[in-house]
């Protein structure tokens, strides 16, 4: 947590606090018998009463326990972490925070970005896209279907989002029908909205990709690329990065490894210009994709090098137990298994298992598969060691026979 000094933090519900330091000490467990597994943390909040976005109320008089001097912060309240230090005298961690309006700026930027991605400009339409982001495609399908009779001016966007929702549930036939209809509506608008036509064309190409219809996928990705070129002459936008990355994916699936590498490198150069920061999740994905291509080509040293670069970026931007880091460990273990380096593979499988045990239920398939891999790798290592010992023993016997003769 100390790495996040200067960062923002927000709760996912109402936040109950107290004005009474003694009450805070009791709830934090400060001064109680020490426990090796748990360490008390006290959050001290400095409140800016001029804030327009952080709402709080002193509810001490209406609380069931009036002695608690309770102060309640509203949903979405945002705080900035100013300092974190350990109180050696009383043996607890103190986190000093201040209320801030910066969270509203981030939320507004997120909503603006979400609307742009959803090809939408109203909160009513954006809500369905948020459902998709929350992993609720069936609810999004129902929501957008219900909007169709009432949103004639936005029907193109609605059909586009229905296409995305059906694609998420792998109903690619309905996804394609809705996306094609959306594309026609965008093209026939007066004037035609070329940017939205390009976005929809890209989505159609993606549907063909998931259907393993790679020829049609390439055709529509090429069409999308030409449209993006007309809309924006600067070839370092997110759209160009996404198209080149998808070109790489298609060529990788078609076993055109040289072309796939070329496309991934093109996407990487554009992304480096777009976001110069080294710690970029898209760069992490690109390195992993490049690693997969090298692995398929049998160039395992280059595959490992690219995979480690991907892992390094993910370790910088995600929490230690994030599933994306688990995926990176899994990717590296797979390469080491291919080159029969079972000891190195075992280390990464154990690491990914620890992550999965933290974030998933006990009998999750990923945990069970990791356990099977660990057993298999340990067995292979043991067999290899026995084989080496046997070979060494046979060499010693041969040497002894030579001496005797």
Structure characterization notes:
The chain is α+β, with helices and mostly antiparallel strands and 405 residues long. Among the domains are: 2-103, Toxin ADP-ribosyltransferase, Chain A, domain 1 (Alpha-Beta Complex), CATH 3.90.176.10; 118-230, Tetratricopeptide repeat domain (Serine Threonine Protein Phosphatase 5, Tetratricopeptide repeat), CATH 1.25.40.10. The chain has 15 helices and 7 strands. It has a 4-stranded mixed sheet. α7 (194-210) packs parallel to α9 and α13 packs antiparallel against α14 (342-359). The protein is flat, with a radius of gyration of 28 Å. The mean pLDDT is 87.
Extended strand count: 7
Low-confidence stretches: none
Percent of residues in beta strands: 5-15%
User: What shape does the CA trace take?
Assistant: flat
Using only C-alpha atoms, the radius of gyration works out to 28 Å
State the fourth-level CATH superfamily of the domain at 118-230. Answer: Tetratricopeptide repeat domain
Any idea what the CATH architecture of the domain at 118-230 is?
Answer: Alpha Horseshoe
Name some characteristics of this structure.
3-stranded antiparallel β-sheet; Serine Threonine Protein Phosphatase 5, Tetratricopeptide repeat; about 400 residues; Toxin ADP-ribosyltransferase, Chain A, domain 1; 15 helices; 4-stranded mixed β-sheet; alpha+beta
